[in-house]
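Can anyone check this?
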Amino acid sequence: MAEKPKYTPGTPAPKSGQYKVVGPRGGDRGREVTSTEGHRLPPAQKGERYVLDDATRHKRK
């Protein structure tokens, strides 16, 4: 199984959905954040990154 891409804090979210917070070695931190496409991912602790866990389907108005 291919590894999911990891996104750094402050980068624009490539898709809307819930992003799981992972540690520097890829371990689950037990937190998720919700972000919409194009908005920057929020700050995180040193070494933490985000992995898209559940993409959301929505239409822009």
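Reply from J.R.: I decoded it. The radius of gyration is 11 Å.
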